[in-house]
Structures are given as structure tokens and as C-alpha cells.
Amino acid sequence: MTPREAAFFATSEIGLAVSATTLAIIVIFIPVAFMKGIIGRFFFQFGMTVVFAVMVSWFVSFTLTPMLASLYLKGRDSTGTSVRVPACVRKIGERYRVSHRLQWFSEHLEEGYERLERRYRRVLTWALYHRTRVLVFAGATFLLGLCLMFFIGKEFVPSEDQSRFVIRLQTPIDYSVDEVDHMNRRAEEIVKRFPEVRSVLYTQGGGRTKETNKANLSVNLVPKSQRRKTQEEIKAEMRRALRKVPGLKASVEDISMIGGGQRQVAIMYSIRGLELDKLEAYTREIRDRFGRLPGIVDLDTSLEKGKPEVRVFIDRDKAADLGVDVATVAETANFLLSGEVEITKFKDEARGRRYDVRVRLNPENRTNPEDIGEIYVRSKEGKLVMLSNIVSLKEGGGPSVINRVDRQRAVTLFANLERKPLGQAKSELDDISSKVLTSGYSGSYKEQADTMKESFGYLLFAAILGVVMAYMVLAAQFESFVHPFTVLLSMPFSLIGAFGALFVTGKTLNIFSIIGLILLMGLVKKNAILLVDYTNILRERGATRRDALLEAGPVRLRPILMTTFAMIMGMMPIAVGIGEGAETRSPMALATIGGLITSLLLTLVVIPVAYDLFDEMKERHFPRKDP
């Protein structure tokens, strides 16, 4: 057979398998690319990139690859004589003795592969005659893999070492601006003492209402390669150091990778109810219990006491008798106490400027609450009436902001995590809330926790839809409703290794490790398709089912090993987790590598056994009728 004939024959023999593999991968990633929500933004570029890359690879595998194979992969010509090696290549090989070393390595590698193939043939033969044991073992292994999922931490986005973060500072609300600035400057000096800190930007006045008792420290670290400590370790040390500043509340937070105007904390838990007093009491109890758990840091609530205030209650009956209306009282008090009312303008002719003129009482006449009662207002008859005759005063204070959710008063609980998965913290907080909150009061998650729940739901739907579409494609390719089930059996086995790799390495199940799982769903079907397709080809040539399986397994072993180990080696540098952004890439690679390993080991044995069993059941219950 000439090289051109061999290339044509090989392409036609694997054409169905390559087409089925390509289409099965495409239909997995198309639903993923068009998911809703924030996660859809993450996965759209990823999904479409995979789809177009696979389509181009499909085209190249049927055109360029066979052509190049016919030109270069020919050790001997059609007459059996060796093909002449180019002179330049021969001289380089002779000078550095590359050809001898490569030949020695190739011979030993081939011997090792032949031994592996013989052992695999014996294992496959045993498995086909002990199908029940194999399937029970495979099922038990799958259940064990699912159990591992409950021991893996879950979060939406892992904390990434960005070499920058922000520290939110809050001082008591009744402190003066100078006192607040002194405390914040002290915190700034503490942060600057860390050798890993490159720069600190201090800004005073934050929050939605620009409170002067709040400030932010934007901290930039030296690059990750120039320090020994991770960003999380530095943040933990800064939290402990800032606790030494009396009266200062400090929250160390990452900078959001997905944007948004809310605080970048792991947990935002909104507690809702009708009565504000009970709502505050429940929030404090939940905060105290939750704060005693290990791994909970930067605990805070949206309950913020306002500045001390004096409430003025007007006796409307007395005011009416004296001819004073409520609006006059309010306007006069505001005019004399706040000084916010402009009464006229002053024009400076010399400088060419105009100034607003505002009037207020002298400081000694507006210092004590009793001074309000000494203000006079004019009645409708033109008489002056002292406010102490018609008003009563009460000193007090209340929350500076009252939030509402679904027309109910709401208080938000904020918390960050140290070495604790978000899923575990959510479970603990739910347990505490269920014991504290009574009827009429409820809690719900916002931001990361809420987004994680929503996104995992979208992913589950996209994965199920992708599996259904993959089954339809395989059914059309194999012209069978049974064999697609055999191929799809390889997908659950990949989860065993994926969850196992995450569990052993201590990584979490997050949006990036789920990308690895989605990638696995598209890749692991390839091995099963190669086995099933070649088994069908051998049966069409007259081989029995068992003989076809015993022949297809060893023949397809080499391409299965080649492609699987190529993918594993390609993922290794990412799994090691070196460089910037390694925290997000590493879980994806580890899940993919673990899934490929277990899928390889189990697919080579379980898929032939499942094929044998399913085909036997089909022939028993749906025997083929001869025309």
C-alpha cells in the first residue's frame, strides 16, 4: 500500500469516530456559551473559542494531516527499500549521534508498550467474563467520587493574588474630623510598615452618604514573584495589626474581578423584618454567634448609629391657640440653627465677586438642646412666641440609614473568610439563622453567595442540555439508541478523578474548576467513541462481539494513550500554579487532569464491558429480524 493509499484508508477508517467526537464536543459547549447571568459572561468566550477551535481542528484532521502523513510518515517506499533521508538531517544526526539515541529510546519505548498491550488484553479478557464484578466496582467507585464532592469546599470565585486590595476603615461617628484623621493615619502607618507593601493611597470620606468617619486604604503589594508571603497571609497579618488601634473597625477586602458597586466580601446576608428593634436584636445575635466560628473575619453590619440628635415635638393644640403653624416652627429652627438658608447676596465691587449671606445663632446660643426653646417665632397676629411654650424636646439617636428590601426593613451582615470555603460558611450561617429568626423575619444572600447559587443552577441546566444533545448526535452517528449510552458512561467516571484531585490538593469547587469539569465532559467521550466505533467496524467485517471487543481495545490503546497523555502534559504547567493568576487556573487544570486519569483507566475496561452487556440485552429483547 502506497503512503497516499494508506493515508486515504486511515482517514476513512477513523472518519466516523472523529466526526462523532467533534460534534459531541461542540454540542457540549454551545449551551455553555449561551448561559445567562454573570457566569454567562465568563463562559461565552471560553465556549465559543472551544467550538471554533474544534471545528478548525476537524477540518485540518481531514485535509492537512492526511496530506502531511502521506509525505513524511513513510519509513519505506512501495518497493520495500528505505527512503532516503535528506543530507542535512543525516549530517546533524551523525554529528550529535541523535539517530542512535532516538533509536535506542524508541526501541525500549516500543517494548514497554507491547508489554502493556499484552497485559491490557489479559485484563480485558478477564473483565468480559466477569462483567458483574467490573460494573459493581465501577459503580462503587463512582459513588465514592460523588461522596468526595460533599467534602470539597465550594465558592464562586477563588481569592486571587492580585498584589492589591483595599482596607475599609470606620471610626466612631461622634469623633471630630481631626480625631478621625489621626486614627486613620495611625492605621496607614501600620500598613506601611509591612515590607511587602509598595504603596498606600489614603482617602477619607466614604460610603453612600460620604460619612467623614469612614476611609479607605488602597494597598499595592510588590509583585508576587518578589515576596514569600501570599496576599492572603499578608491580609491576615494586617487584620491582627489593625486590631491594636482602639475604636477602629477595619475590613480587609479584595478588589472585585467582576465589577459591581457593592462591597467585595465573601458573605452579604440580608435579614428582613417589620419591626426595626427586633430586627436589630436578631442581627446582633446572629452576628455574635457567627463571629465565634473559626475562619470568620471582618464581621460587620449595615447598622450604623447616627449622630446624637434632638427631636422636637410640637403641641399642635397650643400652637393653634397662639396662631403658630408647624411650617413656621420648622423654618425658623432650620434658619437659625443650620445656617443653610441664603437671605441675600453681598457684592464685592473691588474684587468683582458675589458672596452668599447666611445667618445663624452664635455658638453659645445653639450649643445645648435647651437653647432651642429660647427661639422666638412670629404668630399670625404678629406676636413673638417662645418655642418652649409650644414644643417639647427629646434627645436620642437612630440609625443613619434604614434599608428596605421588598418593602421590608432590612439589615445586611458582612463577613470575609480565612481558609474557609464559602459553601461551608453559608451552611453554618443558615443553621444559626434558622435558630434565631422567628416568624415574619427571614434572611437571604446577596452578591457572591447569591451569584454562586444562581450560576451553579445555570451550569447544571447547560450540562444536562449538553448531554442530551450529545446523545442525539451519537445516536445519529452510530445509528443506534443503545451505543450512545455506552459512550456517555465515560463521563461519570471522569468526575471521580476530578473531585479526587480537588479533594487531595485542597482546592475548591468554583467557577474555574467547573470550567475544567465542562472541558472533561467534552474530552472524555473521545476514548469511548474510538473503542465503540472500531468495534462496530470489526463486527461489520464479520467478527463476533467478543472478538471485536478484544481486538478493538488493544488496537485503539495507542491513540487513546497518546491523546490522553498529551492533554495531561499540556495541563501540567497550569496545574503547578506558577505565576500571576495561578489561584484561578490551577483548580481548572487539576480537575481536568484527575478526570482524564480516572476516565482513562476505567474507560478502557468498563466501556467494553458495558458495550458487551448492552448489546446482549438489545439482542435478547429486540432481536434483529432477517428480511
Could you explain the architecture of this structure?
By secondary structure, the protein is an alpha+beta fold. The chain contains 20 helices and 15 strands. It folds into 3 domains: 235 residues, Multidrug efflux transporter AcrB transmembrane fold (Up-down Bundle); 170 residues, Multidrug efflux transporter AcrB pore domain (Alpha-Beta Plaits), CATH 3.30.70.1430; 88 residues, Multidrug efflux transporter AcrB TolC docking domain, DN and DC subdomains. About 1% of the residues have low confidence. The strands form 5 sheets. Strands 5, 6, 13, 14 and 15 form a 5-stranded antiparallel β-sheet that branches. It has a 4-stranded antiparallel β-sheet with strand order 2-3-1-4, covered by helices on one side. Strands 7-12 form a two-stranded antiparallel sheet. 31% of the residues are buried. The protein is 58% helix and 15% strand. A hairpin with a 4-residue loop joins strand 2 and strand 3.
Q: What would the keywords be for this entry?
A:
single chain, alpha+beta, Multidrug efflux transporter AcrB transmembrane fold, Alpha-Beta Plaits, Multidrug efflux transporter AcrB TolC docking domain, DN and DC subdomains, 4-stranded antiparallel β-sheet, 20 helices
